Amino acid sequence: MVLKVFFPSCCSSAESGILIGRWISEQSSAVILAVVHFPFIPVQVKQYLSEVQRVTKVSVSVLGSWSNSKQEKEESLSEFLEDLGTIFSHEPWIQISKEGGSKFWSCSTLQKHSNNPKEEEIILVYYDQRKVMLSHLHPPLDTATSADHKADDASKLSAIFDTVAKSKILFMTDRYDDGPIKLTHWQSDGVEASIIVELMKQASVPACMLLTFLLSLISGICRSRVLKFWPLSFLWSKLSTCEQLGHRLQHLQVISSNKKAQTQTQLMRKANIFVSLLIDVALGILLMSWLYRKNRIGHLADTLIPVADHVAEELQDLLQWLMGAPAGLKMNRALDQVLGRFFLYHIHLWISYIHLMSPFIEMILWYVGLSACLGLTVALCILSDIIALLTFHIYCFYVYGARLYCLKIYGLSSLWRLFRGKKWNVLRQRVDSCSYDLDQLFIGTLLFTILLFLLPTTALYYLVFTLLRLLVVIVQGLIHLLVDLIDSLPLYSIILRLCRSYRLAAGVKFRVLEQQDGKPLRLLMQINPLSYGSVVQTYRLPTYSCYPKDSWTSLCKKLFLGELIYPWKHKGEKQD
Amino acid sequence: LAVRCPRLQLRSLSAVTSAVWLAAYALFVLSENSMVLSAAIFITLIGLIIYLHFVKIDQESLLVIGSLGIQVTSSYASGKESTTFIEMGQVKDVVINEAIHMQKVVYYLCILLQDPGDPQGISEVVPLFQSSKPRLDCLIEVYKSCQEILEQRKTALQSS
């Protein structure tokens, strides 16, 4: 098989020495991790390697020799390097040599114990050690195979990425350390570290403990029995602000937990939640500062009452229009007047209620606006709740109209069956024929005609109020969609993909470098980053998403029959 | 193995631009708002950039390395390159398929991927050269070179 040598590009200019790395025999590929320079004592090298192997569980061994000479090939050096092959026995022993400043290296292998000594083809693949070490390979396929399958078709690339990632400890010694062994790898010029990162790591432990303590206090208060009484619990479940606050509390708990993230996905999730919370709070504070500047809250409160008055006036005009001859239809005068006056009285009650509240509105709004500092999502939820409260009368009208219409439709359908001489059999859940008495038939027909001729009036009122209610529902739905978007967007992953795209790898790409006859094929391996769409899909944060409960047909059917519709379903709500 | 796509035609580009600008001018005459004209110019520019960066493929190439895998690259007119690398362990075969599209028969080259659970089955078919659509004679050349390399892999597998 073709022998593949993965050589780190940082070692291209290293001095002569021996190569250490991992040999993957089933793919016939050698992953070189570092170069050990002369002088060294073979026993110490073997000791060091066995220690590294113990810690990292990667079978690191001496793979071959590397010679980098400025002049032409020296015979004595090459003999010395071959003799090394006998000390560190490895099958096959790889020899790479670079002469002068030429780009083309010569590579050969020594097979001592093989049965058929043939010339093997060698492919040299250069890779950037630091990037491969830090990157995380995203398998596009579902890893749902069993354990023994995995061993067989474990992807070659993931083996290579694994090897480099697990050998972190090998890269911890740099050339300034005084040890028996001198290595060259990507960090040999000095171990990289950042003061800010170290400081933050130190500071995060007490901060996490404090946060956990506070959160346990808050969740204890929330779960106390006082808040569980029936009217209050009903109120909490209806207000979306409470749900959003609970959701954010959960997020905070995840971040402040003491356990370190085990897998890559957990780490990314924590980071995503943290960044999302940060941006949310920042946007909320921005919004708050904009609202409180130039006393905008006062202006808002001042315009709220006239807006509510205006809406009520529009509704009154609408009802007057319905009580007349709307769109040329002739309504039943008596029923019309009754319904119209009923709804007008309601609006009158609503207006007086709002006028009663008007002196307190500004103060309430001012304090409610302060809670926008908890995050933009909370502010949006509060807005949606305010809309729901202000349009409560529309909801009431809708319910009245829907119930009346629903009753009428049921009455009509059952009397229609009587008209034809049939009856609904409750036991058998089907329509059966039935013989009625004459007086039953008479009264039934009378009621049927009355209901039928009153149908247009009720239907019109129902239609108008349903449309208004749907409008409000759509507006609330849009706000909730926006909140969901802010909640679930994995901002940290997107920023990582933008700035350090090699950390999220979908695969690799190879580029063929210049070639020369007789020398091995040279390839450059680069990391192929994940596309933005798959980043968002892989790292989406789970939310209590709201999506339409019914399909279009069932929605239309419910509207036709007059059943009450609650189009948005929240995840976790009981299905009734 | 690289296949070149037909270049962006100047005729079609100018046709589309003039159509958009005529419509914008008509709107301007109707509405007397000069924003319409600047909006039209803006939209044309943005549309051209989006088209060049995301839609118009300049060149598609195939790189087959016997022991590593197959790499498919498409480079767009704005210089962007999108690559997919398929490991040799996943590749079952490279074949030329026939497809009947409307009134003509179209030939396309595709890679068959192996199903990890079922050694005889095929999990996915990856079509190549979708935008440049080379003709059968070109495809046959590519097919022959690919088969040579795949044959070497099979003999290597059997001997080891």
UniProtKB/TrEMBL annotation, chain A:
Alphabetical UniProt keywords: Glycosyltransferase, Membrane, Transferase, Transmembrane, Transmembrane helix
Transmembrane segments: 203-222, 273-292, 338-357, 364-391, 397-419, 440-464, 470-495
Listed GO biological process terms: GPI anchor biosynthetic process
GO cellular component entries: endoplasmic reticulum; membrane
GO molecular function: glycosyltransferase activity
Keyword rRNA-binding: no
Highest taxon listed in the record's lineage: Eukaryota
Annotated protein name in UniProt: Phosphatidylinositol N-acetylglucosaminyltransferase subunit Q
Organism: Aptenodytes patagonicus (King penguin)
TrEMBL record, chain B:
Pfam families, per the entry: PIG-H
A Gene Ontology cellular-component term: glycosylphosphatidylinositol-N-acetylglucosaminyltransferase (GPI-GnT) complex
Top-level taxonomic group: Eukaryota
GO biological process: GPI anchor biosynthetic process
Residue span(s) of domain Phosphatidylinositol N-acetylglucosaminyltransferase subunit H conserved: 61-130
Entry keyword Signal: no
PANTHER family: PHOSPHATIDYLINOSITOL N-ACETYLGLUCOSAMINYLTRANSFERASE SUBUNIT H
Recorded family membership: Belongs to the PIGH family.
Protein name: Phosphatidylinositol N-acetylglucosaminyltransferase subunit H
Organism this protein belongs to: Aptenodytes forsteri (Emperor penguin)
